Every structure is written in C-alpha cells, then in structure tokens.
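Continued from yesterday's entry.
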Amino acid sequence: MKWLFLLGLVALSECLVKVPLHKGKSLRDRLREDGKLKDFLKTHQVNLASKYFPRLAAQVATEPMTNYMDTTYYGTISIGTPPQNFNVIFDSGSANLWVPSTSCTSSACSNHNEFNPSSSSTFQATSQSLSIGYGTGSMTGVLGYDTVQVGGLTVTNQVFGLAYTEADFFSQMPFDGILGVAYPSIASDGATPVFDNMWSQGLLSQDLFSVYLSANGASGSVVIFGGYETSYYSGAMNWIPLSSQGYWQITVDSVTMNGNVIACNGGCQAIVDTGTSLIAGSSSGVANIQNAVGAYQDSNGEYVVNCNSVGSLPDMVFNINGVQYPVPASAYINQNYCTLNVQQTPVDLWILGDVFIREYYVVFDRTNNYVGLAPIA
C-alpha cells in the first residue's frame, strides 16, 4: 500500500510535467537541460501531496515547556497579527484557551502579558461571555477569534477567552493563561479547543499529542502535537481505553503499597491531568496512604513524613488495565520539605497529576480514545 501510494504520486507528477512548453520541447526536457529537473520534481510532489493528500503534508509540532520548580510546566504561544506572546499551561484537565486582556481589572493580570485586541488586524470580537472555574480559582471574560501559533503551527480562526477578571491565585503563577487540551465536551461556552482545530485544519499527521515532563527543575519538557517520540520512554507503550471522553479519564483497578490495597478497592475513576501538580484522590484512600507512610499534619496543614524514612518507604502502585505503574517515594514525597505530594479531592475521582506524569511518558490519542503510558527513559 505504501509503495502504491508513492508510485501514484510519481505518476501524477509525470502526467503534469509532460505538457509541452512550446512545440518540439517539453517542460521536462527544458528543466533537464537546465539542471533543474530534480528540484522541480521534488517540489512538485510535495505540492501534489498538499493538494490531494493533505495529511501527508501535515506535521508533528514540538513545543518546549519550562519546568517551574516541578509545580508548573508552561510553553509559549502567540495570538494575533502581529503575534503577541503568552506563556500557557497545556492543560489536559480543561478544554479552553484563555489569556489576560488589556481590559482586565484584576491585579492578577497586571504582572502578566495581556492581549490587546486593537493591536491585532485579524482579531474578531464577540459579545459572548466566558466563565471558567478551576480548583485553585476562576476567571471571567469574553470570547474572541484570532490566529494562534503553537509549536510552529498556525491555527486560524481560533476562539479564545480574553480574561476580564482573574482569581488572586493567578498573580503568583509564572504563566499568563491556560490552553486546555481535553475533549470539546467539557469546554465552557461551546468553544472549540485549539487541538481540535489543529486536526480539522489538516495541520497534524496524527490525531494525538504526547507529553514529557522533566523532574528536579530540569529542562527538556515538551508537548508534541501530532505524534510521540520513542526516545522519551523505555519498554512498551501500554494503551488504556478511556472510560469517559471529556477529561482524559481512565479506570484504575486498585492502588497498592507493599502488595496491600490501600485505595480504589474494586476500581475507581481517575483523570490524567497535566494541569495538576500533585496526585489527588478520595478522602479514604488518601488517609490510608498517609497512614501507610507515617505522615502527620503540621502547623500549616500539610502532611509530612520523617525525612530519614523516605528512602525506605514503599512504592505507590497504580494498577491500570492489567499493568502496574509504580510511583516511588522520591516522587510522591517532596524532597525539600518531606511533605506528601498527595492530597484529597472533594469528589470520588482520582487525579494523576504531574507527580505521576513525571514517571511516565503520556500519549493522548483522540483517534482511538486511549491514553498511552510508558516509563520514562
């Protein structure tokens, strides 16, 4: 099939370049004489691929991310014409893109980049309001449309939020806004996510993206749109079917430590969330984890362990779709403060945040509705 496809492209180019330029000598002959035939055929085949087989001309886009103290990972995008730059979290736990605007009245906007719609020749305003709540705060604003550039890709007519108000929490964050990469079904106000437009506009070779998060503040974190890179992981990539298509939600069969079930006995639901720093879970499950590692609550309300015991603590093992995914104590314990990187959620839903993702290269596959997990290399 592959070779027939390539031969078809060659046949198409043969048909098109044999049109005579003038009587007695073809375009092919003239290009051959001028030494330009090879370059012409190469360019022509690429153009044919773009016209008749647009996915062949699509690409894989790699967006570097900055690791901010192992708590937040963000990359740089641009919006508008000429482009205005913003640092954003690529958040698999939400589906909207928003950035601060010059109309924002909150102090949280004042120390961040703000989008100026009057400075963009391609901006299209709407009167549709936007309101999004997160676990750490909320934002309100209005929707607009403009050109968005991510990882070298140009997405046209992209809807995004212009924040008018932001929670104080955001003033302490190194990023300007959020680019959600979850399913469109959870997007506020029916906004089409950036990733969906990347695919529908023929910019990607595959309908998936992948994430590698570095540890210990190191550089090298990336989100790759349209593919995944085998050098980031070792062993086999295990594919886990989604249990719901809104968040990137999967079923966890159990959570064990030292072979004993400490959470999710009989199974529970979890989301793989690049926008959450910690691992979070049900109150009973987290309480069992706290007891298993001997954590106690300090005056700040955080759960801490004896720093000398970290090296002897067992792995926290997530059993998912028949495969074990261990998270070592060096990951679920903050090495600087000996605090537990696991917290309770108000709902019976586990969140596998950055503490988990740093241990595993993650592929988010929209074609098959899978999450792929493999140990980092």
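--- second protein ---
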Amino acid sequence: MKWAFAVFAMVSLSECLVQFSLEKGKSAREVLEEQNAWETYRQKYPYKPTAKFNGLSAVGSESMTNDAGLSYYGVISIGTPPQSFKVIFDTGSSNLWVPSIYCTSAACNKHAKFNPGKSRTYRKDGKPLHIDYGTGSMTGFLGYDTVTVAGLAVTNQIFGLSQTEAPFMKYMQTDGILGLAYPSLSASSATPVFDNMVKEGLVEQDLFSVYLSSNNQGGSVVTFGGVDTNHYSGSITWIPLSHELYWQITVDSITVNGQVVACYGGCQAIVDTGTSLVVGPQSDIDSISVWMGAFSLNGDYIVNCNDVGQLPDVIFNINGQQFPLPASAYVSESQNYGCLTGFSAEGGNLWILGDVFLRQYYSIYNRDQNVVGLAKAR
C-alpha cells in the first residue's frame, strides 16, 4: 500500500543530526480485514501507487509508529503554542500537509486538526492545494507557520491545511504527510521542509538518511543532516540520480538465479519511503512471480507459505552492484490471504523501490551531490 514510509538512528551531538525512532502498529489493512471490509475498499478505492508521481544545529528524538502495514510516521508540531501531528516522512512527495478544522471528511474527523486561530505565528496564504496519493487524494489551501521536527524549529514554513481527504485515510493512524522529494515536485510550488532546514542552517549537511527496522522491531530512524554508521555494514554504493524530481535512479536489470527476469536493458526506479511495496510494470511483476511460483488474486501475488524457505532471492543490479531481496524480506503473512509477496503491478514503466526494499538497505538522500546512497542495513 502507498503510505508506507520510512526513517531512523542515534548519533552524537557533534554530528548535528536530527533523528526519529519508530515501532510497529496495526495496519489499516488489518483493521479493514477484521471488519470484512478490505475487498470492498480496494475495489471502490483502487490502490494507485504511482499517482503521486504524475549554521545552528540540534539533535532530537521522537518515538514513531508503523502504520498501514508498512508505513512509518513520527510526531511534529505546527504553530505557537505547538499543535502536534503524526506525519509520514515520504521521499516520494514534497509537500507538508495536515488536517485542518475546515475539513469535514470522515478521515479528518478521525485525526488531529490544525486550528490557525490558536497559533499566534500563523500566516494565511490561501493558495489552493491538491495532491494525489496511492490511496486517494487531499485538497485544501496553504498557510505559513513554525514547524518543529524533533526540536528543529523551521520558521515561516509553508504547509497545507486539508479541507477534504480520501475515505481510506480515516483508517490510518497518521494525520498527514511530510514530503522529502525535490521542490520541483511540490504541488502549488510550496517549499519543502527539508529545503528550509538547509536554508535556515538547521542541519550541517544537505542530506538525510533512513533506517527502517524489520518485522515488529522498533528503532527505525530518519536522520536529518548526517549518516549513522550504526545502521549499516560494509560500504555505501553511491548512485547518481537520473532525474532530479523524485529520488529517481537507473536499475540495470533484475535477476533471479542468474537469469534476467525483469528490467531488461535497464529501467527507471524511484526510491520511495512512502510506498510499502516494490511496484513495477505488470509484465515484469508477472515474470518475477513465475519464478516465485506465485499466483495473482485481486492484485495480490500469493505464494504457498510452506515454500517460503525455498524461494529465490530477487536481485536488483544497480550501478554495478547487486542488491538482493531475500524471500524473508519480500514475503509476509496476511490474516485472510496466506503469504503475500511484497511486489505489486501497475501500468507504466517506472519502478518504485518502497519499504520492502528499503528495510534491507540503509538509504541516504544527498541533495548536495544529487545522489542516493545504499548500504546493507543492520
């Protein structure tokens, strides 16, 4: 599911980093399955993971939770005095937005709402905002206020106040989104939070890094301004961006048992903490599924749980290096569907390397050099 987000680790004060720790919670899908409502929602609101793609420093930590099966979020505050919100840290979008008191959607009524009248530092902009995500869209308008992330106060930060939100969002524990992609992707030309962190000298380096814990473990962290060596082993592979809009890279091929099974001749992929699964073109995902012995059911790819131990690694060949994805990483057990693979198909040619991939690899997003770094997570 889209809303699968990431981040993570502890570092010294001298490194001038900002970080968050995360832990696991019940997913929106699990809630709907318990209510026997999952199939109704997935048919009425089909999942479209590629929709969104059309000086002074300090250190702070916040506890975070895993939502929607694979999404990661933490607590930020907006305004003076501060109003708190749970947001997903999303490298696949660029806007910050939260619900507002002007929103009457069922999703908003289930979440915290920002009240401009209670903040003495709020300044209205009024420009309209519309953003599409895999699980629906939001509409609203823009305003300015102080946004505090783990103790870093970003002044005069532009952000969205939602007026409508997709029905599916009411099942999610998170209130809003904090986008970490490039400014050129931002709806209504709103400057992203990280860009203002850099502009205001709040981080030492123009980069941030992400660690996602596996299974039910806590400890996931987003680190603004640096890299935490405690969360990876071996060397970092630096991959130049092929497009400076998303964090988009070139994948050379995808192999199984030494055979190229997808991404023939190379393909484009977005490294996205905001997408739960690995998403690819229909023909490629079907090809990979054949090697797994998986079958498709209502968009899910299902394998026999007894066969998981014998399933092959799916290897992503990127910039001359191999990045294996073992079955233990790409298979999960569902309450109603047995064992699901972490692969999803959608039309188009772009791949999305979401949380299923990123839990295996510590990721670094370097805006100064326009590269993504990947290293084996630990």
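The two ends are 24 Å apart (CA to CA). DSSP finds seven helices and 28 strands in the chain. Will compare against the first tomorrow.
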